[in-house]
Amino acid sequence: MAENSGDQMKINQVALFTPTLSEIKNVITPALATNFEEIAVDLVDCPDLTKVPFQLASEGLGGHPKLFDIGGPPFLLPSVQRDKLYDVQTILKQINYNNKAFVIGAGAGPWPQVSRNCEMMMNVVIDSDEIKNQTKLAWVGDDNQCVLQNCKESDTRLALLANLFVSEGKPGKVIKVYVKTRTGNLDFITTIQNALSARYRGQLVGMGGTFLIKQGKVKQHVMPDFSPVPLNSEKSLNDWLHFYNMSAPLVAVGTLVSAESNLDLRVQHFHSFSDHGEGGHYHIDVTPDTVEYLGYFNIADCLYRIDQPPKSVLFGKD
């Protein structure tokens, strides 16, 4: 729950429409083919994601898959609400998710841990109060460089906003997506999200998982420390953010949904991390001729909208 309140936070539970993996494959394949030169979309048994190159905290994406959409940009913009801190363990208890929980995704990191604003790439297993925490945090250093560090093992908090995929981390069938050489204008995730949005009008579909940027470079941002002045426009937001071209290999984690709905959902949100000190919020590749992606995704059956802000903002949602 938000640490500024002793009450349980408001959580809206929404059942998601769950087409088969085969149907999703048929929906996204033509869209990917219009945006990338080489594509292969298959239904496969999920590989062991704990191994290189993904190095996640659990093997698979199966077992009661859910989405968490927590907070939102209004808690950051135009001025930060520092008291908006959430603990994933607390949320899991509030929704009575009593199974092993493998939680991956993108959000703002627990700023008290590093004494500054930071990006979070959540990658943690919580099982009967035992924690395997491989979450990464990225922040902007004194020389404006990206700093990537491991999260403290015991800290399962986040701040302000997050989009998380929660499962039991079990092996099982997933959608494998491989693409190479971008020929269109859309990034990898937007291509998939747009296809879902066009196909499932009036039905809310949600997915989560991980993808690897195998080759090339991608544009990513890292939030610097909280702005001392309000960020009142898209220009002020972009001037505040720090953008970098980061090099493969990068492992991204996050979620996407087919529509914002009346819950003011974030339709896509992925953060990536690496073994070479780079990580941040994924935007798009900047080397379309050489870029190569490999992703594994699963369909969620339920979404929890957690501590929805009372109003939205007109910028900063992508």
A few lines on this structure:
With 318 residues, the protein is mainly beta. The protein is 14% helix and 41% strand. This is DUF1907 domain-containing protein.
Question: Helices and strands in order, then pairings?
Answer:
Layout: E1 11-15, H1 21-35, E2 36-45, E3 66-71, E4 85-87, H2 88-94, E5 101-108, H3 111-114, E6 119-127, E7 130-133, E8 136-140, E9 146-150, E10 157-167, E11 173-182, H4 188-199, E12 206-215, E13 217-222, H5 234-240, E14 242-247, E15 250-257, E16 268-273, E17 280-285, E18 292-299, E19 302-306
Parallel strand pairs: 3-19
Antiparallel strand pairs: 1-19, 2-11, 3-10, 4-10, 5-6, 5-10, 6-7, 6-8, 8-9, 11-18, 12-15, 12-18, 13-14, 13-17, 15-16, 16-17
Helix pairs in contact: 1-4
GO molecular function: hydrolase activity, acting on ester bonds; zinc ion binding
Subcellular location: Nucleus
Subunit structure: Monomer.
